[in-house]
Amino acid sequence: MMTKAKTEVPSVKSKSTQSGPEEVTVSVASGGEWHQTASGDQPVLTTNQGLPISDNQNSLRANPSGPTLLEDFILREKITHFDHERIPERIVHARGTGAHGFFELTQSLEKYTTAKVLTEVGEQTPLFTRISTVAGGSGSADTPRDVRGFAVKFYTKEGNWDLVGNNIPVFFIQDAIKFPDLVHAVKMEPDRGFPQAASAHDTFWDFISLTPESMHMVMWIMSDRTLPRSLRMIEGFGIHSFRLVNAAGESTFVKFHWRPKLGLQSTLWNEAVKIAGADSDFHRRELFEAISAGDFPEWDLAVQLFSQEEADGFPFDHLDATKLIPEELVPLQVIGRMVLNRWPDNFFAETEQVSFCPSHVVPGIDFSNDPLLQGRLFSYQDTQLSRLGSSNFHQIPVNAPKCPFANHQRDGHMQMAQPAGRVSYEPNTLAADSPREQPERGFRGAAMDETGAKGRIRAESFSDHYSQARQFYLSQSPYEQAHLASALVFELSKVEHPHIREAMVGHLRHIEEDLAQRVASGLGMSELPQAPTTAAAVQELDLSPALQLIGKMKDTLEGRAIGVLIADGSDAASIDAVNQAIAAAGAKVKFIAAKIGEAKLANGSLLKIDGQLAGTPSVMFDAVAIILSSEAAALLGREAAAIEFVRDAFGHLKAIGVDKGGEALVKTAGIEQDAGVIAIGNLDHFIAAAKTRQWGREASIRTLA
Length: 705
Ligand code: HDE
Hints:
The chain is an alpha+beta fold. It folds into 4 domains: 1-44, no CATH class; 96-210 and 226-406, Catalase core domain (Catalase HpII,  Chain A, domain 1, Beta Barrel), CATH 2.40.180.10; 466-551, Up-down Bundle (Hemocyanin, N-terminal domain), CATH 1.20.1370.20; 559-701, 3-Layer(aba) Sandwich (Rossmann fold), CATH 3.40.50. Helix content is 27%, strand content 17%. It is built from 19 helices and 22 strands. Strand 9 (242-245) and strand 10 (251-260) form a beta hairpin. The protein is globular. The chain starts with a strand and ends with a helix. Residues 1-30 have low confidence and may be disordered. The structure holds CIS-heme D hydroxychlorin gamma-spirolactone 17R, 18S.
């Protein structure tokens, strides 16, 4: 009789031609009834050698009160495996969430590239996407102020293409040689082991204040872009210029952009901090729930295409990763869409072991001379060797190409393939069917002329560090500018050394004097510090409204969640109407009450409660409604969690829908009602307000920078 064990291995063909992983169930040839449980429909628990285990609860002991015996090989195998379950976490981007999906091309780039993934319209290419924070460890919270990594592995017919980007289109540094310094500066300080997942400390700002090229990125990380509401509501950018190469060998520069279907949405800083306490897995859980419910996250893939001649006319060097190309200068063309539609079966096997490398490209896509990109081409392959422990990491199912792959590389730790035959070299005459080069379809880089003197050089064209920082700041709405100033005040107020704070404010003076003034005043400085000397004059670039976040928020409730605070005695008709209106608008409704279980509504009906009040604060929602009897409102008025629920919703600029009891609770919370506190009878008005934040409220509740 045959029994199925649940182990999955990559399928490996004989000889040296391998194909990507398929789900393979290993059939265990059994010795008969030994591999059958009593009920017959469950596999028998075995050791890794296939030995059936009779007792998984007790180790082997000399007698009932005696020592455990070294002889217990079953105990030793189990504990040894457990002892080695963890692998080194990523040095950066350790905390991440991944999902499977597909890319569908809607517009061919055939004129520019031979890459099939970008030329075969309608073709669906499977992919795996991992979105991450940068600074924190793998167990850190989802919502610190941080850049989000946005890495996509396309399993194309011509090999794997990894587009390893971030949710911000520029980077801190211009040259890869500075990356270890940057990362050491932002990570927890080495003597004390804190802070975890935070840039608000001395070493980070010390390094930044001495690295003027980081000023543009500083504007982005201090903006609300680093506080996403959901992983489904962020953009992704390949950052560097890449090259597309067509059949004639001509190349065109390209920048890649991912655009979320749900639009952009961020939280406020105070909200993000509280979310971390309420649910440190906030983003991972939200993505899991969305995919599980069939509400698949979707992004458009757009490109900016430009020639060398056009690049020569830009007021900056596009090979400098601290610069972006404004959409107003080179418009975006949407060429396809990505849908994430399958959660991994196993977090470790897939999300943890997935290994992205920017050097993984396909024929028709090539690199540019961006010195940051050039360094990355080395780093990723190298880091996987220590992280996954073997040069065979490409054989792990999530990393293996789904197209056939074949070469003469052999052996190494954890080799899973069993190539047959005596030939493991090329050229050869002994194995006519062994893999050979393919001059027509094989990868060729763009043919470039390189001239000039060798040296450790920073191009002159990389010396303007402030113009795009200024352009970014001035392009923001007044609300966003205020958040940016507050973020700088918060971060720098955590810096112990005054000279670092002063150096930073000095840099801000080159970006915008008013910003420097606001931050200096927030930091209690009596006068503005000296601005550093600049290597290049600050240019007045055209404003780019496309850089705003508020401008990219969508007027929708899709993908959003609304919390409805109720209690025994709440009005059933109001609840029903609110529930239906919210669901019709595409948002999720969660009912919150002082106790989990069911609430008995005024008409005697029972309503299932989704969240207990103290454990489900209003930071979990985009807007709230409060529907209470006057008795319940009086009772909840004495509950700190209820008061906080209301105050936070108000302070985080959310719409609050209220009936009479809700209004009473709002009053007890000491809140002066404004246009964002809406009678729940006026449902259309509430739904419209719930789609956005009450920006106008902010000035009345926060006066400091
Ligand atoms: Fe990375 N980066 N990086 N990076 N990066 C890593 O590779 C590195 C940079 C990015 O979900 C590491 O597998 C260098 C820019 C993402 O698995 C490592 C430099 C951008 C991820 C590494 C950069 C990124 C990483 C750590 C400067 C945006 C997570 C673990 C030259 C375009 C991928 C790993 C995942 C991960 C090196 C700068 C994006 C050490 C040397 C710029 C999304 O290899």
